[in-house]
Amino acid sequence: MMCLRRARLARIAALAAMIAASVLSMPAAHARTASPDAWTQPDESDLTSHGHYVNRNGDEVHAPSRTRSGKAPPGASARCRDGSYSFSRHRPGTCSRHGGVAQWE
């Protein structure tokens, strides 16, 4: 009887360890796609506006802006429908005040 209980507890512990490992390896629904250091900062001289905002992770992000060259700036994550480029690090809400996303970069 005691051996069966130990075997059952060992199987439960092994199953719990497998579940914990799989849950910890799952990406979060709104996780960043790259570390903050991997994000390229835009060339301010090519942008027409220079605003910033703090995102939900507490990171400072350049606000959507048009470019003087008309080309996608480094670090842009999307082109908005109004022609500006977003530097958002999360998809939800990207270009929300600029007509929505026209194209993901």
Q: Could you explain the architecture of this structure?
A:
The chain has a three-stranded antiparallel β-sheet with strand order 4-3-5, with no helix packed on it. 23% of the residues lie in helices and 14% in strands. It is an alpha+beta fold and 105 residues long. β3 and β4 form a beta hairpin. The longest helix is centred in the N-terminal third of the chain and has 24 residues. The protein has a domain of 70 residues.
The biggest sheet amounts to: 3 strands, antiparallel
Uncertain regions spanning at least 5 consecutive residues: 26-37
Q: Which series of helices and strands comes N to C?
A: HEEEEE
Shape: rod-shaped
Count the strands? 5
Q: What share of the residues lie within helices?
A: 10-25%
Strand order of the largest sheet: 4-3-5
The whole-angstrom Rg is: 22 Å
Q: What are the defining features of this structure?
A:
105 residues; three-stranded antiparallel beta sheet; alpha+beta; rod-shaped
